[in-house]
Amino acid sequence: MLKIITNSLDETRALGEKTGKHLEPGTVLTLTGDLGSGKTTFVQGLAKGLDIPDDYYITSPTYTLINEYPGRYHLFHVDLYRIDNYADLDDIGLYEILSGDGVVAIEWADKLPKNLLAEYLAIHIDILNDESRKISIVAHGLRGENLIKKL
Ligand SMILES: Nc1ncnc2c1ncn2[C@@H]1O[C@H](COP(=O)(O)OP(=O)(O)OP(=O)(O)O)[C@@H](O)[C@H]1O
Ligand SMILES: [Mg+2]
């Protein structure tokens, strides 16, 4: 496990960017942590690292639940905050994108059925104070392990 303290929004974004640079197609990242902990901020960095043009402004996909951005690989940004049953996951097309070769970043991934994901990179953010966050990254699978070594 990798634990990193960031002391500003920019540092969290930079960590996301570094992660994005080393991502392989088909990688799934789960993002957990309280409201306002920095999940979307991390995904903004991820998008930069994936060479997604700056004119796409990444916000939480509250109503659509999944946003898609073109970059070195496609980035699917999923936010499950408003999901309250597993049937909806199929309706929003989540299973389909998980079987594709885009990068999938899932906020509020704790709402997924247990054991759904075989291989993924788990990112958990704890709020330490107004400006500081503890970001814990755990690899599940070889792809994630290789990525962590580069961070
Ligand atoms: N070290 C830090 N890293 C990231 N964000 C920080 C940090 N310090 C302060 N912040 C602030 O915390 C907030 C993080 O918001 P963000 O939308 O990324 O959170 P979130 O986890 O996606 O929330 P939600 O659960 O509502 O989707 C921003 O207002 C940002 O300015
Ligand atoms: Mg968010």
Distance between the ends: 11 Å
CATH topology: Rossmann fold
CATH homologous superfamily identity: P-loop containing nucleotide triphosphate hydrolases
What low-confidence regions span 5 or more consecutive residues with pLDDT below 50?
none
User: What is Rg?
Assistant: 14 Å
Shape: globular
What is the ordering of alpha helices and beta strands? EHEHEEHHEEEH
List the domain count as a whole number: 1
Largest sheet: 7 strands, mixed
- Average per-residue pLDDT, rounded, comes to 95
How large is the count of helical segments?
Answer: 5
Which range does the strand content fall in?
Answer: 25-35%
Q: How are the strands of the largest sheet arranged?
A: 1-7-6-2-5-4-3
Structure notes:
- This protein has a single domain, classed as P-loop containing nucleotide triphosphate hydrolases (Rossmann fold), CATH 3.40.50.
- With 151 residues, the chain is of the alpha/beta class.
- Strands 1-7-6-2-5-4-3 form a 7-stranded mixed β-sheet.
- The longest helix has 13 residues, at 9-21.
- It is globular.
- It starts with a strand and ends with a helix.
- It contains 5 helices and 7 strands; from the N terminus they run βαβαββααβββα.
- α1 (9-21) crosses α2 (39-49).
- The structure holds adenosine-5'-triphosphate (ATP) and magnesium ion (MG).
